[in-house]
Amino acid sequence: LNKPEWYLTQVLMWIGNHSKFLDDKIQPILDKAGSSVNAGLEFSRALVMLILEKLAADIPCLLYDDTLFCHLVDEVLLFERELYSVHGYLSSFPSCMHILSEESCFQRWLTVEKKFALQKMDSMLSSEAAWISQYKDITDVDEMKVPDCAETFMTLLLVITDRYKNLPAASRKLQFLGLQKELVDDFRIRLTQVMKEETRASLGFRYCAILNAVNYIATVLADWADNV
Q: How many other CB atoms are there within 10 angstroms of residue 224's CB atom?
């Protein structure tokens, strides 16, 4: 259960190792018979069906172990990425995202994603470098004087989007978007709390850093507004 990468990698190796044989030997036979079947894709589809069976059997066993469950989701997302980008798998075919979209699994994924995002926010705001720009010495890069915590937070949101963007159902994507909105609001509250501590020094370093953070986040969210 703690090594899903073993069978996921094995399947990717089988697909890669058989592609030349399927293209050179099997596809011509199908073409000659007038079939529209793509040998390589059908081979991939059959192996993915085995993975779906394996996932369906494994997931109930690790649903309440955060570490194992997170590891499984991470490995499945890496597998999916390579399956589509390297092996040309079709989005209309069955995929692991269908398993991750099933109610009990999906709700667990959302819960765990939120838990780890909040932990990340705790650590980024308690860091000594939270209010310092990592580009502070490079003037042409650092026009907005973005504190490290704001940049890390927006990267966190971007990574979450990257993880859920290939979910097959729009309704599931919207639930993840709901999580992101919660995180933005949580971050806003945290910034407000820090700002209240700094009101006596409104021209102080940290107060200005908070304003820069808000400006940066608002600007990036506006840029993302075109992303359906």
A: 12
